[in-house]
Inverse folding.
């Protein structure tokens, strides 16, 4: 017999059942030698590893009874009840309200941005005056805050009666989406401006892109015409606000330019008055021409005086002291010197005003005149610049440097888009389920820690 056949025979042996074997009571000792010889020998334990699995199967094991059926407990009922209360009931109430009570709302869209006029006037090009208006980004930020403020709500309510528009379906029919003041006893308009502003933030959504400076609005109302009217009024009020900001900026610029012009005019008047007093004091109508003429005349007289002195020296060397020509030459020299003194006195530069030849006094006179001339020239230049700035401010005031450009004009809806019933119902279901799951998990966690 081959080893494979022996293993096959072993596999054909009957498998022992799981019933425990009968217990054999131990005997104290065999009764006789014959009994010991007639006792059957125990089966030898196989030494090979091939019989290990079979022996393991023959090992008796304890058998468990059938598992008992799961029975519903009290906590299961509480979880189911909480699911019904926290998820099913809110979802059912929300769906019922959205499809039976909620009034249809129509949306009107409008989009605009603040634009700045970049064209320069002729005065600015000639005078080199910079533009007076500021950057449009700050104006857009101001406009974004203005669209959510009480001021625009008050202005538009005075024109369109927002309380009446947003309470048309009746607060009793749709108390969630219609306007009504928060009161426990009545739901009738008008309510306070704070209540209306709060409802404004629900009906008017403002979207602002800081990168591009674009502002988009979505206006909701219960009729398409009302939504369109509110959107148009928002655009008009926004345009007025930008114009007011531009007017304030231009008025400030004009006021500063006007003050500078008045100061420049007063300074120029003062400098001209001082220069006029200088001319009256020294009797000079045209200071430059008069000074040049007087200097030329004095230079000519000095040349004549030099010639007369040379002629006198020549006569004294060739003629006697009683020669009448010498007396005539001396007389001529005296007359020339007197004439030079008289010409210098016309300018106020005689010997009494300075030294004997009057050079220091003449230098002081010329320095004083140059100082006054420079002051007058500076005052004239300041006046010219101030006048150019004032003209530029006036030109800026006559044109609209900043304006509101609409990239989406107010639209008129043809069908109701709000409230978005499937979306709102889905949100209620999701949040209710998440809240219920959180409560259940926390409850089981606290129970397990006990």
């Amino acid at each position: 017999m081959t080893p494979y056949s022996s293993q096959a025979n072993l596999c054909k042996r009957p498998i022992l059942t799981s019933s425990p074997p009968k217990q054999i009571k131990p005997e104290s000792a065999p009764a006789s030698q014959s009994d010991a010889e007639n006792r059957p020998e125990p089966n030898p334990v196989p030494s090979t590893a091939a019989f290990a699995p079979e022996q393991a199967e023959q090992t008796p094991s304890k058998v468990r009874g059938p598992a008992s059926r799961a029975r519903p407990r009290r906590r299961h009922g509480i979880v189911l009840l909480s699911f019904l209360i926290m998820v099913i009931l809110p979802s059912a109430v929300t769906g019922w309200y959205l499809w039976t009570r909620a009034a249809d709302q129509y949306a009107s869209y409008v989009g605009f941005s603040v634009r700045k006029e970049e064209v320069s006037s002729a005065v600015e090009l000639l005078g080199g005056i910079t533009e007076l208006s500021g950057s449009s980004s700050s104006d857009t930020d101001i406009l974004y805050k203005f669209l959510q403020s009480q001021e625009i709500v008050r202005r538009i309510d005075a024109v369109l009666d927002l309380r009446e528009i947003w309470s048309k379906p009746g607060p009793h029919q749709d108390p969630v989406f219609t306007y009504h003041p928060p009161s426990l006893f009545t739901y009738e308009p008008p309510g306070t401006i704070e209540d209306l502003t709060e409802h404004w933030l629900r009906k008017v959504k403002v979207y602002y892109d800081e990168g591009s400076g674009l502002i988009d609005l979505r206006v909701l109302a219960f009729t398409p015409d009302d939504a369109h009217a509110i959107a148009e009024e928002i655009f008009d009020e926004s345009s007025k606000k930008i114009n007011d900001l531009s007017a304030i900026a231009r008025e400030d610029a004009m006021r500063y330019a006007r003050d500078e012009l008045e100061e420049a005019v007063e300074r120029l008047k003062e400098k001209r008055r001082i220069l006029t007093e200088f001319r009256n004091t020294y009797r000079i109508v045209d200071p430059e021409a008069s000074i040049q003429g007087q200097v030329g005349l004095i230079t000519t007289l000095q040349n004549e005086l030099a010639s007369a002195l040379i002629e006198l020296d020549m006569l004294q060397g060739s003629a006697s002291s009683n020669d009448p020509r010498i007396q005539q030459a001396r007389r001529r020299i005296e007359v020339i010197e007197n004439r030079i003194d008289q010409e210098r006195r016309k300018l106020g530069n005689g010997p009494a005003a300075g030294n004997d030849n009057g050079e220091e006094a003449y230098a002081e006179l010329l320095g004083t005149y140059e100082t006054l001339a420079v002051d007058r020239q500076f005052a004239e230049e300041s006046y010219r610049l101030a006048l150019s700035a004032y003209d530029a401010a006036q030109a800026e005031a006559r044109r609209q440097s900043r304006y509101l450009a609409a990239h989406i004009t107010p639209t008129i809806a043809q069908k109701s888009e709000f409230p978005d019933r499937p979306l709102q119902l889905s949100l209620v279901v999701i949040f209710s389920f998440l809240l219920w799951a959180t409560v259940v998990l926390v409850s089981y966690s606290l129970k397990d820690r006990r």
About this structure: The two ends are 68 Å apart (CA to CA). The beta strands are 106-116, 204-209, 214-221, 402-408. Residues 224-282 form the longest helix (59 residues).
